[in-house]
Design a protein that fits this description.
disordered C terminus; mainly alpha; disordered N terminus; two-stranded antiparallel ribbon; Tektin; cytoskeleton; 546 residues; single chain; two-stranded antiparallel sheet
């Protein structure tokens, strides 16, 4: 191949220089042109030293133009199209090194392939044995897991049965509390009606007596009993909600364990020859678990413990309800008896006061009669003193007409004057006594009016306490009703008598009997005496107490 041009940094590509010998300058004064090779740079290759071969780089760096040649310029002597081919040359050393590397790589690949073949056979045997052992271990683990699920499932089912039994007992207690609170409405309405009727008392009889205090205490007690029963019923209702939450948690846990048991049984029965197996790529990377065996067992154990706590709370509430029934029924009966006794004592006091007022009224009437007679006698006495007074005054008037010295202050004159003064004083005394007697008569008349008014007040009070209040307070709910074993409708007004009693005897129940048993009616009254009319409420049966 024939080379066109030379390399850029060759020593012979520049102008010939005279090394240290300088000739005489030419005869003419022509300008001296010093030429030096200026390399031609292709676009993107301004700095050529960055890609030159090592040998060429050493030649290029050692052969440089002297300083005096820097000013000379000449056009390039090689073609630009051959520059890249001339600059991409390798040395023999590079070639030997490349062949040696290829041989070494081929030998290493052969050795690696041989070693890989023997290791692959060994790995296949080991992995086959490991796969069988892991599959057998997984089957054993699934069997143990099925045993654990069965154990916890049986424990949950047993606790669920006990919780359902307790829920039924709580529902019974709640209905008893509601019935007992509703049954208290009847005596509460009677006590309120007694208070309203006693508000119709007149005047001084509107006294805050022991009857009113006992009635207020009875109303407060009945309302307090109702509030306690209703509050306890609400607590029971809240406890039943908690029990239902625990029940739902147990049911969900049992349902989840049943589903897990079915799935694990299906997985336990899977074999390599089963038809339902398939590839599910990426499932080993997807971790959708939310618990570990410890937290899984703790979850079921917590559900059972929560259910046991709810059952313990329910048992405490039921015992509290039974104690509340016993206490409140005893308090209501005792207060009802005390109020009736206070009524009887107050009626006796009012009757005694009424009798005394009637006796005093009779005496006042007698005094009024005597005062009227005295007034009549005083008026007659006053009229009897007028004529002597007229005589004495006429005599004095006539004696004033005596002439001159005859107008003498003699003894008759003194006696007449004295007589007039005496009669006039007597008249004044009699008139004063007449006014006093008239005032006394007025006072007696007013006292009579007050006594008659007081008698009317006492009669009205007796009518209210004895006829209205005590007639309504002849019956009271029996203990079985107060503890909620029977439930009746809302109370009605007092019904007229005339129908058979629910449990024998006379009664004011209108219509058929509503008694739930012989223990809820009849019996002597706690305040003594025999029974009269009975307070009857539709749909209720009460014990005769007064």
């Amino acid at each position: 191949m024939e080379f066109l041009g030379t390399t850029q940094t060759a020593s012979y590509c520049g102008p010939k220089k005279d090394c240290g010998l300088q000739g005489p300058p030419p005869g003419g004064q022509a300008p001296v042109v010093q030429e030096c090779y200026q390399p031609f740079h292709l676009p993107g290759y301004r700095y050529l030293n960055a890609w030159k071969p090592s040998v060429f780089y050493k030649i290029a760096t050692t052969q440089t133009c002297p300083e005096e040649c820097q000013g000379s310029r000449r056009p390039p002597t090689i073609l630009p199209s051959l520059r890249s081919a001339l600059f991409c040359r390798y040395t023999p050393r590079d070639w030997d090194r490349s062949n040696e590397l290829q041989l070494r790589g081929a030998e290493a690949s052969r050795l690696w392939a041989s070693r890989l073949t023997s290791d692959s056979l060994r790995i296949m045997q080991d992995k086959d044995q490991l796969t069988r052992q892991m599959q057998e271990g997984t089957s054993r683990n699934l069997g143990q897991r099925l045993s654990d699920i069965g154990f916890w499932k049986s424990e949950l089912c047993y606790e669920l049965d006990r919780l359902l039994t307790e829920n039924n007992s709580m529902d019974t207690i709640k209905r008893r509390l509601e019935c007992a609170a509703q049954e208290v409405n009847c005596p509460l309405q009677v006590a309120l009606e007694c208070l309203y009727n006693r508000e119709k008392r007149i005047g001084i009889d509107l006294v805050h007596d022991s009857v009113e205090k006992n009635l207020i205490r009875e109303v407060d007690l009945l309302k307090c009993c109702q509030d306690q029963m209703r509050k306890l019923a609400k607590r029971v209702d809240f406890q039943m909600r908690d029990n239902r939450d625990a029940q739902h948690a147990l049911e969900r846990d049992i349902e989840d364990k049943s589903s897990a048991q079915c799935i694990d049984e299906r997985c336990f029965n899977l074999r390599n020859t089963s038809d339902s197996i398939s590839f599910y790529h990426g499932m080993e990377k997807f971790d959708g678990t939310v618990s570990v065996p410890e937290t899984w067992a703790k979850f079921s154990n917590d559900n059972i413990r929560h259910s046991q706590n709810m059952r313990a709370n329910s048992i405490r509430l039921r015992e509290e309800a039974e104690h509340l029934f016993e206490t409140l029924s005893d308090q209501m009966w005792r207060q009802f008896t005390n109020t009736n006794l206070a009524f009887n004592a107050r009626i006796a006091e009012e009757t005694d006061v009424k009798n005394k007022l009637q006796t005093q009224l009779a005496k006042i009437l007698q005094e009024i009669f005597q005062a009227e007679n005295t007034i009549m006698l005083l008026e007659r006495a006053i009229m009897a003193k007028e004529c002597p007074l007229k005589v004495a005054q006429t005599r004095l008037a006539c004696r004033t007409r005596r002439p001159n010295v005859e107008l003498c202050r003699d003894i008759p004159q003194f006696r007449l004057v004295n007589e007039v003064f005496t009669i006039d004083d007597t008249l004044q005394t009699l008139k004063l006594r007449l006014r006093e007697t008239q005032d006394t008569l007025q006072l007696l008349v007013m006292t009579k009016s007050r006594l008659e008014h007081e008698l009317a007040i006492k009669a009205n009070t007796l009518c209210i306490d004895k006829e209205k209040c005590m007639r309504m307070r002849k019956t009271f709910p029996s203990t079985p009703r107060l503890v909620g074993y029977t439930c009746t409708g809302p109370c009605a007004s007092l019904a007229p008598s005339g129908s058979p009693a629910p449990c024998g005897g006379s009664s004011s129940c209108g219509g058929a009997a509503h008694c739930g048993g012989p223990a809820s009616c009849g019996g002597p009254a706690p305040c003594g005496g025999t029974s009269g009319l009975h307070l009857s409420r539709p749909g209720s049966c009460s014990a005769q107490v007064c």
